[in-house]
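User: I'm curious whether this sequence folds into something compact or stays loose and floppy. Could you predict its structure so I can see for myself?
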Amino acid sequence: MEKPPSEVPVTVEGAVDTSETVAEPAEPAPGKASEKAPQKVPHARRNLVVLVFSNLLAGVGVASGAAVGALLAESLGGTSMAGLAQAVGVLAAAVASIPLATLAQVRGRRWALSLGYGLSTIGALLIVTAAVLGQLVVLLVGLTLYGVANATNLQSRYAAADNVGSGARARTMSIVLWSTTVGSVVGPNLAAPGAALGSGFGVPDLGGPYLFSIVAYLLAGLLLAALYRDPAGSLAVASARTAVGQPGGRGDGAGRAEPRRTGALAALRWAWAHPQARFAVVTTAVAHGVMIMVMVMTPVHMLHGGMSLRLVGIVISLHVLGMFAFSPVFGWLADRFGPLRVAVGGMVLQGAAVTLGFTAAALVPDAGAHAGHGATAPGLDTEVLTAVALVLLGLGWSACVIASSAVLASVSEPHVKLPLQGATDALMNYFGAGSAALAGPLLAWGGFQAVNTAGAILLVPAVVTVILAVRAR
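Assistant: Here's the prediction. I'll summarize afterward.
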């Protein structure tokens, strides 16, 4: 029998049998939703509610501490430690992504996500302890564990996709991401209440907000452990059935071998051989890198250009809203018109963002001067362009990440799927950390124009992989 055109042989050296096939996610015709009938998953509705609320809680936990983390590190170790606090958290998320995906493959999403939030709870406790004792080393250990929450939040979108059919994966993942909006908005505003709460327990002002993080992470982990149930078709459930001889395992007489496991590098090699998966991996990392590079230098550029701190806060808030508030729209578009088209739209948005950012920087009088050292007040056009650029940057990130995640969630080879998701999230965070590290020297060398130029160059690999994926369809 002739294989459908969407199925291709799998060829990963030493990891996956070449006799199996994998259905790559096909692009629906324009204006048509996926024609696959929705798949009913036991406990799906409850699982999705649990994921939304746990992600909301974790978003509050991340944002409440992020607002004061650099300040706390600076108070304990000097100005040079302020940047390290951010870097430690990003790298921790990158390092944790693959182990969490491996645990999800072996024990299921329930325990992987619960453990991730459990480790983050311990991290928040250590940060509070460090604030009380004035211990920088304890703070860095705490920030490392605290950063695991970011990796856990990202992997929760794939858990959402496990609970629905292929025609609703993108918008289901986008709803879980959207719940982060609440945390992103509420969290930073808990700094003052956290300081007041902490004073009652003898915790310094900068350590107080982490008390909210402790509660938020603990509740998120307990909620998942108590109520989330992995879908019956997941690899971890299949492995458990195989071990005890339940139907579907070796004990039922079917003669099936125990499910194989694939490492992160083997999963990436598999993705490199499959154009759509390759596009998803590259686009996720590139979109995140461009967003981080421009976003982290925007406040510095704005202050150097004479813009007010209040305006900086407004622009960053609008950027965060762009990242998460419209994610359900991009999820719906990806399900209806296909992830490739939505990803292309995301790249166009990010391209427009760096173009406007470059233009805004060119309009700032004496843009290279530092605030208080020759900078003059910018015009209204510059402020508006900067704000619009940051909103477009966030929207582009949202479109690219949701579209790429939909492709990765549609990989039908079970031994590749979870390792590839973990490896992609790790690359995403490593790329973000590298972009953030590069952004500072670029700003010092060529100003905000150089930062946006570098962002445009970073988009090139994603554009190339999309073109190759379209040609391979």
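Summary: The longest strand covers residues 7-9. Residues 1-26, 28-38, 239-256, 367-376 have pLDDT under 50 and may be disordered.
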